[in-house]
Amino acid sequence: MFAGKEKTSSNLAWHRPQSAISLQEEELMQNSARAAPNATDPIEKLRLLCLSRGATGILALGRLFRRMDNNGNKKVSKEEFVQGLMETGLEMSTKEAEETFGRFDTDKSGNISLDELIKQIRPPMSESRRDIVKKVFKKFDKTGDGVITIDDIRSVYSVNSHPLYMSGEETAEKVMNRFLANFEVDGTADGRVTLEEFMNFYSGISVSIDNDCYFDLMMRQAYKM
């Protein structure tokens, strides 16, 4: 969900133990927006444009391209790639979109893998951060099929340390619903979250957290690990 439906730091609901949440989210968006026009690498520019929309920017882009994969081959053509970027409303010209596609299309087949596309756009995460995100996901994924449900998250995710709940500004239900809405960013409320989507979401949050131990603490407190 991009063009005309931008999420600001005030309505992005993600959990952090301290009340610096909104300031760090806003800083991430502003820094990415300032850096994007000066980025010379097309992949880096696309990453920054996504992050300028907040922690869910890359998650939303991934869902958009998945939705466009009508035949289920997990590939996207140049035409689909350019069209998808235009639909997002990201400030990237057709020429820039085509150049970006060329960077991904290393074998010159005219198609790129959706999995590789998202992996390259996603901000790098340390191995320890990836491990804790995977551990949280696996805690819910009882069947091992790589898919969990919104209800699974709701049953364990804790809002007790969320600053808006702690201050009394919002009820536990409102904080919870706003957090869960992050996983339905393209408007498709299918109630399902894949490991890739879970990782995409937390890679956006990870960018604004400098300390690995703090990230680990955030995840453990949020999911009662």
Description:
By secondary structure, the protein is mainly alpha-helical. It is built from twelve helices and four strands, in the order αααβααβααβαααβαα. The strands form two sheets. A two-stranded antiparallel ribbon has the order 1-2. Strands 3-4 form a two-stranded antiparallel ribbon. The longest helix has 15 residues, at 21-35. The chain starts with 20 loop residues before the first helix and ends with a helix. The relative contact order is 0.17. The model is unreliable at 1-21 (pLDDT under 50).
Number of beta-strand segments: 4
Low-confidence stretches: 1-21
Average pLDDT metric: 78
Structural class label? mainly alpha
Distance between the termini: 31 Å
The biggest beta sheet reads:
2 strands, antiparallel
Rg (C-alpha, Å): 17 Å
The proportion of strand residues reads 5-15%
In helices, the fraction of residues equals: 55-70%
Global outline: globular
Strand order of the largest sheet: 1-2
In N-to-C order, the SSE pattern is: HHHEHHEHHEHHHEHH
Number of helices: 12
Domain EF-hand: 56-91, 92-127, 128-163
Keywords: Calcium, Metal-binding, Repeat
GO molecular function: calcium ion binding
Protein name: EF-hand domain-containing protein
